[in-house]
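sorry for the late reply, my laptop died twice this morning and i had to redo everyting from scratch. anyway the thing you sent over, i finally got around to it. pasting the sequence first so we're on the same page, its 300 residues, then the predicted structure underneath. double check i copied it right bc i was rushing
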Amino acid sequence: MPKIEFLSPKMGELLRCQIDANAGMKSDIDDETRIFVDFFSACQENLVISLRDGSVYVGFVRIFITNEPHRPTLVTLWGTVFSAYRSLGYGSILLDAALERIGRIESNELIEVWIDSNDPQLSDMLSHRGFTYGEISEFTKPLCRADAHTIVSDNHRTWTLRAPTVHDLREMAEVFVSRFPFAMDTPSADTVIERWNRHRNISLDNSLVAIDSGRIVAYALCIVWAEDKSDLWIESICAAPGFVAAGEVVLDKSIRHAYYSEFSTISLGTESKNSQHDYQKKGFTLTSTWRRHKALISAS
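ok and here's the structure:
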């Protein structure tokens, strides 16, 4: 009989050991899942839910909660059912357990739930539970010798360009927030920084900021997923209002930097339809899309 468990850090370690010890399941676990399981030790108890059938763990989901003044509580879900156990109903059990746990969060307002996935079965389950979704598009540009001579707007002389330090993260986050000042789902600068800090693979050495009159007006914050430098992923790229040209220069300089740093490709994701056309003009091609599912639920 399937059993839901709320994982403590110790139980998370047992799950990680089970995955590593099960040679038959190793091929079913991608690198992102392994990173996620390794991250259990940093999770608070009752924020990670596992599903066990007999002595075997068949899946898990993490609940990440963000509380901000004057905004709905934001909850992000991430998890998986291991491929050997999919299409057996385990996903529905995990999802319902997660939503039930979210409903017990102490909150005086509605709770907004986000789930990123491109799984049609999960999308169907979520739609039956009141979720709607928007699409995020991923673009990749193979790097070649021509990128060493990327044409940068003459405006680049207006700004100082350099790699950021940890002390620049707050100012970069404030640039991000400034782009969407009236959107209800725009996080605070503190939350943006917290999300960035959760990424182990953030590479400030490969990131870039543009500075105007002593303040950051645009940035590209990048991630290096593998030691072989196969891809430079732009986790976030943004320009303050009135500095769109600075954002374009940051992107052009990031492309040139990626080439000289011997990356094979440079990639990013966006929800903006307008930005997609701009990226394609710079040689990026659409490689995949996934869905960000959202729903508002009431706390009990």
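The radius of gyration is 21 Å.
thats about all i looked at so far, will dig more tmrw
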